[in-house]
Amino acid sequence: MKQIEKSAPRIGVYVCHCGTNIAQTVDVEAVAEYAGTLPNVVVARDNMYMCSDPGQALIRKDIKEHRLDRVVVAACSPRMHEPTFRGAVFGAGMNPYLFEMCNIREQCSWVHQDREKATQKASDLVRSSVARAALLEALKERYADVTKAALVLGGGIAGIQASLDIADAGYKVYLVERQPSIGGHMAQLDKTFPTLDCSACILTPKMVDVSRHKNIELITLGELKEVAGYVGNFKARVVQRARYVDIDGCTACNDCVDVCPQIHPDEFNMGLSTRKAIYQPFPQAVPGAFVLNLDDCLGKLPRPCEKCLEACDAKCINYDAEDKELELDVGAIVVATGMDVFDPLVLPELGYGKHEDILTGLEFERMLSAGGPTGGKIVRISNGKPPKDVVFVHCVGSRDKVCGNEYCSRICCMYIIKQAHLIKDRLPDTNVTSYYIDIRAFGKGFEEFYDRVREEGVLFKRGKPSEIFRRKDKLVVRAEDTLLGKVTEHETDMVILGVGLVPSEGYQELAQMLKLSLSPDRFFLEAHPKLRPVDSNIEGVYLAGCCQGPKDIPDTVAQAKAAASSVIALLNRGEVTIEPVVADIDEDLCSGCHVCEALCPYSALIYDPGREVMTVNQALCKGCGVCPSACPSGAITMRHYTDAQVEAQLDALTGHQSVAEKVEA
Amino acid sequence: MADFEPRIVGFACNWCCYAGADLAGTSRFNYPPNMRIIRVMCSGRIDPSFILKAFHDGADGVFIGGCHPGDCHYMSGNYKTQKRVVMLAGLLSSLGIEPERLHLEWVSAAEGQQFADAVTRFTARIKELGPLRIPHPKVEDEHAIEPA
Ligand code: FES
């Protein structure tokens, strides 16, 4: 063993094979051997799985035996296992901030094939980490109390379920929904696949539970505007738009609707029927109170026509109501903002919008519903008669690079199969044909349901329609039957487009507000696709339902319950650790020039006029490191990312060639 | 110049670019092995002096990866980075260093492919430029700064 001065750091380096994940492209033994030659390194070893129990035990044993005071593990990404190893060294009495992780898997062995070059790169990275480790300083973690309340964004089935679970555990929930009622898309569905439960019958009781729960504060017509703070202590600013109808006073008597002269397309029925300017979104709406959309109102300026005001016996209409701004303190946030359906106007060849008898799946769903525009009767919009022939088109706006949606929307095959069944159920003599690319019937009971519907006489043809147009009073679907290899023209009465799902409107603004990452499909990105499917990349913010990616109702509910349990665990713990990675000011060096003050996005830098220096409010500092990089006096130190630490890494990565060699002769 | 293997230092912010680089790994998107990354919390931590030091000490190229505009985990760190990079590009050219040797790229946590592509392009560019040679100061200039 090398002789090392007493005060010098004593570093242990551990290079992981990760089975063959690292070892197949990096000569792990050679890297470990090389690490042993680096300054201050007391032990250097390689091991099959450093993150395993024996791997961690090895570190702890070495810390004791070799009196290590720094540990470097070269393995996977710190985003994966840094917490694991910090825990391991802490278990042996070492300050966790004296641990350094070196990424030779994600950023080396997995992306390079040349073994020699990958080994060289791994050695360089280890050298850089060892240099940094030598300068690491012990930091003390801070703790903060957790506000025992949660904010749930979105009142569809995901948000409803998450709210109920969190509220049942005894915590306050603010459920914010931007529509006038909760219920989301599930409220619009007639039946659910494959069990054919009535959607409203299973959803409505849950909606009512939300409205009655003493721990849930429901904020409809609400929109998140701003979020500050961090896990355990978020401050959310929510704007609640005026409803112009007093929620508690309204008895839903309908008198106002009867007199209202203004007619508008009904959003709930996908524009297939109309509503008044004052209306109830749908009969089971929660809250049940009516809502007045002043933008739709006749003669908004200077005054509304006031017919509804006169008709309202309960006197609960108030045109002067104003938007309310709410400040909510919460410890955790569940994002359950759902999805929108794909707009087939993007694909003009499908004829949607040109012919009334071409509907989207969701429009047809409303037609199927007993509470819908036709009272559940299946009719051609063009003539009001039942269709004799119906065609379904799969994968509209899904699995289609042309319209930018490469992903499978996961529900369309099944809702089409369900809708086909419902047609056969109500109009047994109607021919139903479904044009598909592949049938994806992967869930519990799905394949069996698909079989049943085929036996009922629904025809499935493999091929994607290229064009839909009108010929006299018929629609013609032109498609290539890829099994027969020939182009067919199918005359039909009605076409239903199996539209896929897209991120819900405003997802980008929300992502920016909460600092959420997006997947390539534009849905919110989970922290880990396998092991942390409901965590977002931001601590304390969880994802539930379709906002994370298309999914059906059972998967949505499962994810909502998982998100709720994560929230409950956090609120129950009552305390969060705050990384001590913050800025520090050396007051002897600070000249009080205020340069840093303007740069800090959190106003954590405050001028002390008495001492004429800047100071850091460490509770506000988030540790981005912008200020030390701008301080002209070098007075600010960024803990854990100090100038010296970064420069040591730079030296280690570049230092082989002296400046003299670089200078042109 | 065919066998010239450039030495490239990369700085990546933890929240976007570093995560994007990890995703490139998980997805096994290959790219040239020349760059070594130093992880910082935010690209705003990258002191211009780090970049100058990297070139001074022997880096042939410096790559900076941050979050897309508007996406910085600390709100505005990447805007500061952008300003610094623009400022440094001018300074580099006046020092006789090709400003293309310093490259700023926005990479989100979901952009593994984009990260791999960006590193591939940048490495090729530096190979084309060849090893960095810092021009020797002219003799008269040297006398000028000599104490009288
Ligand atoms: S955190 Fe990525 S640039 Fe600021």
TrEMBL record, chain A:
Similarity annotation: Belongs to the HdrA family.
Record-linked InterPro entries: 4Fe4S_Fe-S-bd, 4Fe4S_Fe_S_CS, FAD/NAD-bd_sf, HdrA-like
Residues in 4Fe-4S ferredoxin-type domain copies: 241-271, 581-610, 612-641
Cofactor(s) listed in the protein's UniProt record: FAD
Species of provenance: candidate division WOR-3 bacterium JGI_Cruoil_03_51_56
Molecular function as annotated in GO: 4 iron, 4 sulfur cluster binding; metal ion binding; oxidoreductase activity
Gene3D superfamilies according to UniProt: 3.30.70.20, FAD/NAD(P)-binding domain
Metal-binding among keywords: yes
Domain of life: Bacteria
Protein name as it appears in the record: Disulfide reductase
Record's keyword terms, sorted: 4Fe-4S, FAD, Flavoprotein, Iron, Iron-sulfur, Metal-binding, Oxidoreductase
Membrane spanning residue stretches: none
From TrEMBL, chain B:
A Pfam family reported for this protein in Swiss-Prot or TrEMBL: FlpD
Annotated TM spans: none
One MF term in the entry's GO annotations: metal ion binding
Keyword hit for Ion transport: no
Record flagged with keyword Metal-binding: yes
Record keywords, A-Z: Iron, Iron-sulfur, Metal-binding, Oxidoreductase
F420-non-reducing hydrogenase iron-sulfur subunit D domain residues: 8-130
InterPro entries in UniProt: MvhD/FlpD
Name of the protein in its database record: Methyl-viologen-reducing hydrogenase subunit delta
Organism: candidate division WOR-3 bacterium JGI_Cruoil_03_51_56
Lineage of producing organism: Bacteria, Bacteria division WOR-3
